[in-house]
Amino acid sequence: MPRDAYYSAPIAWAAWNGVVNGYSPTSFGPEDPITREQMAAILYRYVDYKQGDVSKRGNLTKFVDAGTISGYAWEPCPGPTARGCSRAREGGRLAPAARPPGQRWRPFSTGSAKLSCPDPSVPAG
After folding, report:
1. Is the pTM of this model over 0.90?
2. pLDDT beyond 90 at 73
3. CB pairs under 8 A, 24+ apart, for 90-96?
């Protein structure tokens, strides 16, 4: 990651505090499109860092594509699902590798951490 990039300091802080991880110890993709499971993992780790409640869990096995969820995302993904932040897509899919529709996120609070959740009034993209 370039040290002079506008995102270097925030990403360094997030990595130092365990909120984000790279693809490997030597590979990080800050300009790569984020996936739904990556977003869930980042939000989960941030809430945990802020000592918010990460205990609320949803049932991932109800999604027909549950087997495609990456190993690192099995712990974080049930939280947004339980809060209604990750809803099934067409065909009962969670679509963990899909890009989250950014225009649908609105503020919500979890303990001391303020995050976002899809706004149900905005159609999925």
Report:
1. no
2. no
3. 91/64, 92/62, 92/63, 92/64, 93/63, 93/64, 93/65, 94/36, 94/60, 94/63, 94/65, 94/66, 94/69, 95/36, 95/65, 96/35, 96/36, 96/37, 96/65, 96/68, 96/69, 96/70
